[in-house]
Amino acid sequence: MITEQSIVDSINVLRDGQIEVRRADIVLRDGTEIAKTYHRHCLAPGDDLGDQDERVAAIAETTWTPEVFKEWQERIRQSTTLI
Prior knowledge:
Blueprint: E1 2-13, E2 19-29, E3 32-43, H1 54-63, H2 66-81
């Protein structure tokens, strides 16, 4: 029997508050792993967490303090004024 599962296997918080998430998509045959691929994405302070793994959302809610969000917004503002 072939089955598939997806798990978030790595969550990293960067200094500026961004969160890097790695998801492993695993294919199993009779319970034995036969293939694995990875998907990565990054979340910035203030991003929607509605479709995120509950652990990712919990880390974001803890990490994204008002100070972190303010610094992130200032960084974005500065980068857009340089263009």
